[in-house]
Amino acid sequence: MNKENQPEIASPCVRNCCLDENDVCLGCFRHLDDIIRWSQASSEQKREIIAQAQQRRRLKQK
User: Fold this and answer.
1) Mapping DSSP to helix (H, G, I), strand (E, B) and coil, where does residue 14 land?
2) How many Å separate Cα 46 from the centre of its chain?
3) pLDDT per residue over 2-58, tens digit each?
């Protein structure tokens, strides 16, 4: 459990780290800034980071 008494949200990292020209990881689709702040982010912020990464993934797959 984390400090908010909620289960810890797992990192979406898939260990395929390679940044594109926009500093977005081609493995998990998080922006570099999101990756850096992950460990200090609240559960709500982590959920938002994951949602944004999923949206980037969908846009890339079109």
Assistant:
1) coil
2) 7
3) 555 778 999 999 999 999 999 999 999 999 999 999 999 999 999 999 999 999 999
Which residues make Cβ contacts (< 8 Å) with residue 28, sequence separation at least 6? 11, 12, 13, 14, 16, 35, 53
Which residue, among 47, 50, 13, 45, has the nearest Cα to 28 in the 3D structure?
13
Q: pTM of this prediction?
A: 0.85
Q: Report the 10 Å Cβ neighbour count for 49.
A: 22
Helix extents (H) in the chain? 32-37, 43-61
C-alpha span between 2 and 16 (Å, rounded) = 26
How far apart, in whole angstroms, are the C-alpha atoms of residue 20 and residue 39?
22
Angstrom distance (rounded) from CA 23 to CA 8: 26
